[in-house]
Amino acid sequence: MIHIPFTAPTPPFDIEKFSMDRNLALEVVRVTEAAALAASKLVGCGDEKAADHAAVEAMREAFNSLYIQGRVVIGEGERDEAPMLYIGEEVGLGKGPRIDIALDPLEGTSIVARGGPNALAVVAMADEGGFLNAPDTYMEKIAVGPGFSKNILDLDAPLADILQKLAAEKGGQVKDLNVCILDRPRHEDLITQVRQAGARICLISDGDVSAVIACAEAESGIDLYVGTGGAPEGVLAAAALQCTGGQMLGRLVFRNNDEIARAEKWGIRDLKRIYTQDDMAAPGNVMFAATGVTDGPMLKGVRRFPGGAVTHSIVMRSKSGTIRRIEAHHNFHRKTGFSAVDS
Questions:
Q1: Which three-class secondary structure state does DSSP give residue 252?
Q2: Strand order in the sheet with 247-253
Q3: What one-character DSSP code corresponds to residue 32?
Q4: Which residue in 8, 3, 32 sits closest to 298, CA to CA?
């Protein structure tokens, strides 16, 4: 592991030419670190709202250091529901490239509250117009890692057929496959299908962004992700897959007329459309960063000690295909610039 200090670029320089393809890809890790550090103080305290608020406040403050004209397109909800990081909020210093932002300051609020594994702070960025404006509803999802036929995924096909194709392309048998599914009553039929097909199952309590990403990591042991989870999280997962490779399909699921109205407000007309990862996160110029709050298969959680902490993050760029893992050592006795994490 390497420890890379992050310092925001200081003018004079041509701010309009400052690209998210370069320094910003590393600078944004300070944003996810700030959220993770703030949330880490509440791990196991049993207060979901307090943990989420701490992460949101720290992330919002950290964005103030970035030379971007940022606009939140996937965030904490609409303006009347969220005091900050709401959809449409402008973040950054108001100078530099125009960037759309998808974020989840704390993926896994209930995980943090009970001290469980695999909570993350997540941010994705794309050029203006690069993300699907997904409403706050559910989405059917299916995802697999890189290297497979483009037609291997199908939201309407029996899972047994998909698993047979996947096993054949991997040169193995269905019994060798491990399928990740959120442990929810609504997934009982999916779980039955997978078990009847002969594959193994990894049930998770929360955190489907990291679960989708795990499909693209050979060492994770996850071959396929399937299930219904949050639509905003689907966009974040698609952004990560644009950087790591892999395939994903998603279809919005509406629970009531209010959710349909909100979708139409954000410009969604075809309510039954099946989206690819390219539809959710336009290829070519996407950046994804995450910092672990609690330990998970992708990232270690925050390690706090008197006067400081250690964080573990990942930052990825689709344009270059670069994936960096960063271990950062924070000294709280020195000024961090983020009051929300000082303590």
A1: strand
A2: 200-204, 178-182, 224-230, 138-144, 247-253, 274-276
A3: H
A4: 32
Continuous segment of H or E residues that includes residue 317: strand 308-317
Token duo for residue 39: 């949330």
Instruction: Flag whether pLDDT at 149 surpasses 90.
Output: yes
User: In this predicted model, what pLDDT tens digit does every residue of 58-70 receive, in sequence order?
Assistant: 999 999 989 999 9
Q: CA–CA distance from 342 to each of 166, 258, 305, 330, 335 (Å)?
A: 48, 41, 13, 10, 8
Among 253, 318, 249, 322, smallest CA distance to 287 is for: 318
Residue listed under structure tokens 């690209």: 19
Mean pLDDT of 171-183: 96
Closest by CA to 234, choosing from 127, 137, 101, 125, is 137
CA distance 323 to 343: 31
Quick one: pLDDT at residue 6?
39
What is the C-alpha to C-alpha distance for residues 144 and 126, in angstroms, rounded to an integer? Answer: 22
Residue 91 main-chain phi, psi, to 5 deg: -130, 165
Q: DSSP label at 131?
A: B
CA-nearest of 84, 70, 74 to 232 is 74
The whole model's pTM is what? 0.88
Q: Please give the Cα distance from 86 to 104 (Å, whole number).
A: 11
Distance CA 261, CA 273 (A): 16
Report the pLDDT averaged over residues 201-229: 90
